[in-house]
Specification:
- This protein has about 425 residues and is of the alpha+beta class.
- It has 15 helices and 22 strands.
- The strands form five sheets. A seven-stranded mixed sheet has the order 6-5-15-16-17-14-18. A six-stranded mixed sheet has the order 8-2-1-12-21-20. Strands 3-7-4 form a three-stranded antiparallel sheet.
- Strand 5 and strand 6 form a beta hairpin.
- Helix 1 packs parallel to helix 8 and helix 10 crosses helix 11.
C-alpha cells in the first residue's frame, strides 16, 4: 500500500491532522489500533484556538451545536468550615472577536464528528483495529490481528499518545515528571442551570466541574498520590460526600453514581520531547508533550499541532517541496508555544498541590488580583485560549502578590487583537519559502 502521508493513531489530534490534509487533496492512510470507544477518560474542553481551527475546517457549527458553551470559569475558595471565603472569575468574554468561549464536547462524539468528515474524502483510508509496530526507512510496519503488512509513504506522523512507537523509532528520549497527587474523574447528571465551569478549593481539597451537553458534568477531584486503593474500599456514599461537601448543587445528582466502576483514576505526568521532527517523521500531541490536566490543554495542544503540521505538509506536497528538512518549520512554530503551556499548567498544578493554608491564601490573592487587573485577566485568558501568548512580567508578579496596586485601565480590543497569533505567526514558511 502506498500513500503520501501515514498517520499512526486516530485520536482527536490525528483525526484533525488527517482532515486538514485530505481537504488539501493529500492522500492519507491512518492506522487506529482501537476497534471500540476508548475506555479511559480523554479531554473534552475545547479552547478558543481549537474552535478557530475547526472553523477553518468547516466544523465549527456542528461542534458548537453538539457542545456546551462555557463563557466563565467560577473560582471558589472555601474556608475550613466549607463556607465561601472568596469568589473570582475567569471570563472568556475579555477575548475580542468570534472565538471568546470554550466548549465542552463528549470526547468520543468529537472523534465521531471528525472521522465522519474525513471519511467523506476518497483520499482518506482508515484502518481500524490496526497498530503500527515500527518503521523501515520508507515504510510503516502494521499489524491487524494476525495479518502483518506495510505502508509506503512520503511522510510518517505519530499521534499515538504517550507510548508512541513513532517517537521510539525516532530515538527521542523523554524525561517524565510526576506529581504528588492523582485525580478521580467521572461524568454524572447535573442541574440544567449549571452551565459554566466551576473550580472549588480549600487549603487541602480541589474539585473541578465542567458541564457537558445532555445535562452531564465532567468532574475531577484531587486526591493524594497513593490514596486510590484505600478510597475504593469505602462505600460509594463516601465519594458522594466528597463532592456534596464542596458543591452542594450536586446533591441528588452525584448520587446517581451507584458504584466505583465508572470512576477512573487519572495520573498526571509532564514531559516535553527535546525535538518533534527527524527525517520524514514527526510527532504530535501526547507523543510530543504530556501536560498536567489542570488547564485541560492536552487535547487542544494536539489540535494546534495538527493544524500547523497539516498546513505545512500540504504546502510541501502541493508546491513539490517535499524535502523533509521543511518539516522543521512545524517544530519552530510549535515548540515554544507548547513549552509555555506546559509551564502554565505546571504552575497551576503546584498552586493546588500542597495542603497548606499559606498556599491557599496566596492562591486566593493571585486569582483576586488577576480578576481585578484587566491586563492580567486578559493575559491569563489569552494564554489559556491558545489564541496568542503574552508572558507575565515582574510587575505582573508584584501585582498578583499585592506588592503593587492593580491597574484599572483596560486595553482596547484593537490592542488586544495585536497579541493574537496571525497567519504569518502560524504559517511563517508561506512568506519565507520552502526548500
Amino acid at each position: 500500500m502506498k500513500t503520501q502521508v501515514f498517520i499512526s493513531g486516530g485520536g482527536i489530534g490525528g483525526l484533525a491532522l488527517a482532515l486538514k490534509l485530505v481537504q488539501r487533496d493529500v492522500d492519507v492512510v491512518m492506522a487506529e489500533r482501537l476497534k471500540a470507544k476508548a475506555p479511559t477518560y480523554k479531554g473534552e474542553l475545547l479552547q478558543p484556538k481549537s474552535m478557530q481551527i475547526f472553523d477553518g475546517l468547516g466544523m465549527y457549527d456542528e461542534i458548537t451545536a453538539r457542545g456546551n458553551e462555557i463563557k466563565i470559569l467560577d473560582m471558589l475558595e472555601l474556608s475550613s468550615s466549607l463556607q465561601v471565603r472568596d469568589q473570582s472569575f475567569m471570563d472568556y468574554s475579555v477575548l475580542p472577536g468570534k472565538y471568546n468561549a470554550a466548549f465542552m464536547v463528549h470526547h468520543e462524539e468529537l472523534k465521531e464528528i471528525l472521522l465522519k468528515a474525513a471519511a467523506e474524502y476518497k483520499n482518506f483510508h482508515y484502518l481500524v483495529g490496526t497498530s503500527c509496530t515500527g518503521y523501515t526507512d520508507k515504510k510503516a510496519l502494521l499489524k491487524s490481528g494476525k495479518e502483518q503488512f506495510e505502508v509506503e509513504a512520503d511522510f510518517f506522523f505519530g499521534a499515538e499518545g504517550r507510548a508512541s512507537v513513532t517517537r521510539k523509532h525516532m530515538d527521542i528520549e523523554i524525561k517524565q515528571s510526576t506529581y504528588n497527587h492523582h485525580f478521580l474523574t467521572v461524568s454524572f447528571p447535573r442541574p440544567e442551570n449549571f452551565t459554566d465551569g466551576q473550580i472549588i478549593s480549600t487549603y487541602n481539597r480541589f474539585l473541578g466541574l465542567f458541564p457537558l451537553p445532555d445535562n452531564q458534568v465532567r468532574s475531577v477531584y484531587l486526591i493524594p498520590e497513593g490514596d486510590y486503593k484505600e478510597l475504593r474500599e469505602k462505600p460509594i456514599s463516601h465519594f458522594h460526600k466528597l463532592y456534596t461537601d464542596l458543591a452542594p448543587a450536586m446533591d441528588g445528582y452525584v448520587q446517581q453514581l451507584k458504584d466505583w466502576k465508572k470512576i477512573q483514576l487519572m495520573i498526571p505526568v509532564m514531559f516535553h520531547a527535546p525535538f518533534y521532527v527527524k527525517d520524514n517523521k514527526a510527532i504530535i500531541g501526547d507523543a510530543a508533550h504530556a501536560v498536567h490536566p489542570m488547564a485541560g490543554e492536552g487535547m487542544n495542544m494536539a489540535i494546534q499541532d495538527a493544524d500547523i503540521l497539516g498546513e505545512l505538509t500540504a504546502d510541501m506536497i502541493s508546491r513539490y517541496k517535499k524535502n523533509p528538512k521543511n518539516l522543521k518549520w512545524y517544530e519552530k512554530v510549535r515548540y515554544k508555544r507548547a513549552e509555555h503551556v506546559l509551564q502554565l499548567s505546571h504552575l497551576a498544578a503546584l498552586a493546588y498541590s500542597y495542603p497548606f493554608k499559606p498556599v491557599s491564601f496566596l492562591r486566593q490573592r493571585t486569582f483576586e488580583r488577576m480578576e481585578e487587573d484587566p491586563i492580567l485577566h486578559f493575559k491569563q485568558m489569552l494564554n489559556v485560549s491558545g489564541l496568542g501568548m503574552w508572558k507575565e512580567n515582574v510587575r505582573d508578579r508584584f501585582i498578583q502578590g499585592g506588592i503593587m496596586p492593580v491597574r484599572l485601565r483596560n486595553l482596547p480590543n484593537e490592542k488586544k487583537e495585536l497579541r493574537y497569533y496571525t497567519q504569518e505567526d502560524d504559517y511563517p514558511w508561506k512568506d519565507e519559502g520552502l526548500r
